[in-house]
Amino acid sequence: MIFGLIARRIVYLAIVIVVITLATYFIFFAGNAQNLAARFAGHAATPQAIHDAAIRLGLNHGFWWQYWHYLVGLAHFNFGNDFQNAEPVRSELARAFPVTASLVVGAVFFWLLIGLPIGIMSAVHPRTKRDRAGTIFALTFLSMPTFVLGVLALLVFYYYLSLAGVHFFPAAGYVPLTADPAGWAQHLILPWLTLALVQAAVYTRLIRSSLLDTLGEDYIRTARAKGLSRRSVIYRHGLRAALTPVVTQLGIDVGTLLAGAIVTERVFSLTGLGELSINALFNGDLPVVAAVVLLAAVFIVVMNTIVDIAYAALDPRVRLS
Amino acid sequence: MSVTTELLTPSDPESSLEAAEAATHVEGLTPMRLAWRRLRHDRVSMIALGFVVLITLVAIFAPLLTDLIGHPPNTQYSNGLTLYGHPIPPSGQFLLGTDDLGRDLLSRIIWGARVSLEVGIGATAMALVLGLAFGLISGYFGGPIDALIARFMDIMLAFPILLFALALVARFGASLTLILLVVAFFQWPLIARLVRGQVISLREREFTEAARAVGASDFRIMFVEILPNLVALAVVYATLLIPVNIVLEATLSYLGLGIQPPTASWGNIIAEAQNGDLYTIAWWMLVFPSVALFLTTLAFNLLGDGLRDALDPRQGRSHVTGGGSS
User: Fold this and answer.
1) Tens digits of per-residue pLDDT, A271-303?
2) B180 touching A, CB under 8 A?
């Protein structure tokens, strides 16, 4: 059964990849090949130089030829070379991915750590002071754009604290985990919390509403009636079923973020996939953009598949068919 | 005595108006008036509504307000910089201080409100129209049309939104119209999906069957019978989407792919403040636009929350999530 699901997802993934790469190519190429060639021929280039650049970048061929060529490369896991430095896109992705992955994994840890308890508390004590406090937390950070939270965090924790003599929080940059684990965490703590707080706001709301619904179900009343402890009713019977929509959202969010937490990376100058793609966009570096967009779609679909499998584990009523 | 027969009597317009009023009172409150009554008793929602009205007025009368202040948003003042060429802090002359080019920050924030609301409301309205149309068609007709639209929406929802918005903007150059179109284009599937679910259940209700029995056309059933039932959903969803879109515009502008300087937007003012760590000598450039952005988004979110409770107190609380502006 599980293989059937995976097989169907692979077909779906293939369709999504074709649609997405086609859209990317179309956005970039529709009447734009000449501009791109001129851009990479350098300043005040002669027509000959522009022509040479077009040949070097493969822009002299027709749209469909280029796109086909690209798909054939993809089949061999070859993303092509970037326009800027003629470096394989694959190695650029390999360099940027650990940065983004570090950011996302840490942030997920913190946002669940913050979001789950607040959401559960709100749902277990609805319409009380504690619930209201949870709501205020959620609405505050829901209304706070990521970049605003990030720059304010820099202002307070980097600038004002260093004025006060505390030089704990660095302004920006990334230190590889393998080189210096402490430095890695120190450089990532502000980005982690920035991303985590904004996401935690969404999750507290999600968990609250889902758990509130579940706790109103008949089988919860049954569990209570047969004398189970409060803890067992809430966590074993309630939370387990209530986590389904949370897991869905988590899958989507992690999938999207792994392809680049664009804003957070920009605020804290982390050289992850987000920065890579946005710089490529500014430079019109199509192969890099196409690769990141593609990666994003793959992550989203893969995460969705994992989520579907996780459903069956969480909810015995769901069987993969 | 029904309202329509009274209004059809042209002889005495005043008494017919009164009668119409009386008739509505006899009929009881419409769901909309009931909702308004509930909303009016919700203090938080009313404060939020007040702020939304205020910021809307500021946006509409931006030219007038900056004339009153006497500082147009893009004028650089030599007395707006210190001897060293640094921005000056909030003072009597420049209430919220100046930016690195000696421009009045207050005027720029006022004009920024205009951009924010134009994108926030404009994009939401477009997404709503598209979402309602496709959701209605998909849910009402079902079958292959529904399957096709549903597949298309699935693929759209697998798109990395922010990245694609950026790609389009990078390719075609940033403009207000493009941002509006891009945002609306990527958001309608979210609304369509919600509308579709509602339409599927409304399609089977008695009043729809009754309309079909008396020979109403599909078009009439969709727009006259079903659509009015979607108003509450649409109002709540729109109110919650506006802040999402305001944040999206601010984010694009912050990244340098939205509203281009010298036109002021809250996002690009914040980007200027971070450029070269300018905020370390001019905190006001960072703090004031951030506060404006935060309060506006918060007000819309609170209002949306209140509206949902007022329109349908039993409806589940689900939050609209922006999708990708992190």
Assistant:
1) 999 999 888 888 878 788 888 888 887 888 788
2) no
Which segments of A139-273 are extended strands (E)? none
Asked if B60 reaches chain A (Cβ–Cβ under 8 Å), the answer is no
SS3 B98: strand
Residue A148 has its nearest CB partner, among B158, B270, B323, at B270
pLDDT of residue A100: 94
CA R_g for chain B: 24
Residue A113: per-residue pLDDT: 96
For an interface test with B, the pick among A148, A158, A192, A275 (most B C-beta atoms closer than 10 Å) comes out as A148
| Alpha helices per DSSP H over B142-230 | 143-157, 161-172, 176-202, 206-213, 218-220
The separation between the first and the last C-alpha atoms of chain B, rounded to the nearest angstrom, is 58
Q: Rounded to whole angstroms, how far apart are CA atoms B6 and A304?
A: 59
Question: What gap in Å lies between CA A155 and CA A113, rounded to an integer?
Answer: 25
Q: 3-class DSSP state for residue B255?
A: coil
Of the candidates A261, A259, A262, the residue with the CA atom closest to the CA atom of residue A294: A259
Q: Which of A37-51, A259-273, A289-303 has the lowest mean pLDDT?
A: A37-51
pLDDT the model gives residue A220: 87
Q: In this complex, is the C-beta atom of B285 within 8 Å of any C-beta atom belonging to chain A?
A: no
The number of residues in chain A equals 321
Residues near A245 by beta carbon (within 8 Å), at least 6 away in sequence: A206, A210
Give the residue from B219, B187, B185, B199 showing the smallest Cα distance to B138: B199
Cα–Cα distance measured from residue B318 to residue A119, given in angstroms and rounded to the nearest whole number: 13
User: Is the predicted pLDDT of residue B88 greater than 90, yes or no?
Assistant: no
Q: Are B317 and A205 in contact (CB < 8 Å)?
A: yes
Mutant choice from B163, B254, B268, B303 vs A, greatest count of A C-beta within 10 A: B163
Is-cis flag, bond preceding B262, omega within 30? yes
Is A81 near chain B, with CB under 8 Å?
no
Q: Give A191's pLDDT tier (boundaries 50, 70, 90).
A: very high
Nearest to A146 among B280, B287, B326 (CB): B326
Do B320 and B242 touch, CB atoms closer than 8 A? no
Q: Pull the structure tokens for residue B325.
A: 């502006």
Say if residues A190 and A268 touch (Cβ distance below 8 Å). Answer: yes
Chain A contacts of B171, Cβ < 8 Å? Answer: 27-28, 32, 284
CB atoms within 10 A of CB B256: 20
Which class for A168: exposed (0-12), middle (13-18), buried (19 or more C-beta within 10 A)? exposed
Give contacts of A296 with chain B, Cβ < 8 Å. Answer: 160, 163
- Percent helix, strand, coil in chain B, to 5, is 75, 0, 25
CB of A148 within 8 Å of a chain B CB? The answer is yes
User: Which among A158, A266, A93 is positioned nearest to B275, based on CA atoms?
Assistant: A266
* Candidates A145, A154, A281; nearest CB to B166: A281
